Amino acid sequence: MKKRGASSKPGMRSSRRSHGKAGTLLDAEAVDRAVARGAREAVLRHKRLGQSIYALKDGRVVEIPASKIRVPRAR
Description:
The protein is an alpha+beta fold. It is built from one helix and two strands. It has a domain at about 20-70.
């Protein structure tokens, strides 16, 4: 017997968060903060390990050596 609120797909769970406009906005802001934090941590890790990173500049992929990496401040 299926549990109430369970999805038929494995690994899928029902969400108990608010789906109103305010709830959606708060979730989007949380996602933006998490993505920014993850990107900052990845860039910082590369710099500390002495590894280059690659980025797009004027439509081309460019290498940024670890010595030139600038890590954005955490907000």
